[in-house]
């Protein structure tokens, strides 16, 4: 399959404008934000393609039973539809593909990373009226149903397998070596989900020096979110320099130094040295 190619500049500008607008709305829509990420990654994803993905999520929701019962019944209904009948699940190979982080491709391939498969579960279940939310376990993303004191967890990466308390503990221990803490089971905010997706894309690009283009747009979308780590500005500056945009990279490094100088003068001095080195490359 061809790799995703980015959209032309005018399309990218429109995608980013809409992404920022949606992220700052009163109730950000998770599927819309994920599809806009996909549109920034894949110039072939146009408005008709985004609409088609939303229609597919609606159609999947329409295939669920009407109010099947409590949290466990919802989890089982989603597993039966999405995991068993539709074949949504993940494998180790999916971590090597950028498409595994793009919602429209996950809907097409029925494969993806845990967090993107969870987005499919969340959006289908939400449309059907289920009490559903994402659960951002360390190193693994799952879906929760029902109130936290009567919570049922499902793992979309494993075809929607319903988890026991021991299963969740093993997932956390395998990722961190630490025990499961109740705070890890709280519902994830949609914007935190999007930031985590973008972090995954940045991690994918970080191991592929030839894909600094992907790393850059993932950082720049992250910076459009209302809340994001300040260090992303430093990462963006470094990427600009790496891509040969020395002047803008130096300007960004100096701006970041101004942010950190109040808390770490030595770090600010090191960043200013990097800015000077970037400007020297113009000579």
Structural summary, described in words:
The structure is a single chain. By secondary structure, the chain is of the alpha+beta class. It folds into 2 domains: 9-185, no CATH class; 229-280, no CATH class. The protein has 12 helices and 4 strands, in the order ααααααββββαααααα. It has helices at residues 9-23, 30-41, 47-62, 71-85, 103-109, 114-127, 165-176, 190-206, 212-223, 231-242, 246-260, 265-280, and strands at residues 132-137, 140-145, 152-155, 161-163. A 4-stranded antiparallel beta sheet has the order 1-2-3-4, with helices on both faces. It is globular.
Can you summarize this structure?
By secondary structure, the protein is an alpha+beta fold. The protein contains 12 helices and 4 strands; from the N terminus they run ααααααββββαααααα. The mean pLDDT is 93.
Integer-rounded radius of gyration? 20 Å
Strand order of the largest sheet: 1-2-3-4
Number of E-type strands: 4
Kindly report how far apart the N and C termini lie: 42 Å
Gross morphology: globular
Largest sheet: 4 strands, antiparallel
Which percent range describes the beta-strand content? Answer: 5-15%
Quote the average pLDDT: 93
Count of the separate structural domains: 2
Percentage of residues assigned to helices: 55-70%
* Number of helical stretches of at least 4 residues: 12
- Assign the structural class, choosing from mainly alpha, mainly beta, alpha/beta, alpha+beta, or little secondary structure: alpha+beta
Order of helices and strands: HHHHHHEEEEHHHHHH
Q: Which regions contain 5 or more consecutive residues with pLDDT less than 50?
A: none
């Amino acid at each position: 399959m061809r790799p995703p190619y980015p959209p032309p500049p005018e399309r990218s500008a429109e995608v980013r404008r809409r992404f920022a607008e949606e992220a700052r709305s009163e109730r950000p829509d998770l599927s819309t934000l994920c599809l806009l990420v996909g549109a920034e990654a894949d110039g072939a994803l146009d408005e008709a393609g985004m609409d088609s993905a939303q229609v597919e999520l609606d159609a999947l929701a329409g295939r669920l039973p009407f109010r099947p019962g409590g949290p466990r019944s919802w989890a089982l209904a989603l597993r039966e539809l999405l995991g068993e009948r539709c074949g949504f699940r993940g494998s180790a190979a999916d971590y090597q593909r950028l498409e595994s982080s793009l919602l429209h491709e996950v809907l097409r391939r029925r494969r993806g990373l845990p967090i993107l498969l969870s987005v499919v579960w969340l959006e289908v279940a939400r449309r059907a009226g289920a009490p559903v939310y994402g659960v951002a376990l360390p190193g693994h993303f799952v879906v929760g149903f029902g109130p936290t004191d009567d919570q049922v967890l499902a793992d979309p990466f494993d075809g929607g397998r319903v988890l026991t308390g021991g299963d969740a503990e093993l997932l956390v221990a395998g990722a961190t070596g630490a025990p499961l803490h109740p705070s890890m089971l709280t519902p994830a905010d949609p914007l935190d989900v999007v930031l985590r997706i973008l972090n995954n894309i940045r991690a994918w690009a970080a191991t592929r020096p030839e894909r600094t283009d992907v790393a850059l747009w993932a950082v720049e979308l992250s910076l459009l979110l209302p809340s994001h780590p300040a260090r992303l500005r430093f990462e963006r500056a470094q990427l600009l320099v790496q891509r040969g945009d020395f002047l803008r990279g130096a300007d960004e490094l100096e701006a970041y130094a101004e942010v950190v100088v109040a808390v770490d003068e030595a770090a600010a001095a090191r960043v200013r040295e990097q800015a000077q080195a970037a400007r020297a490359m113009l000579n």
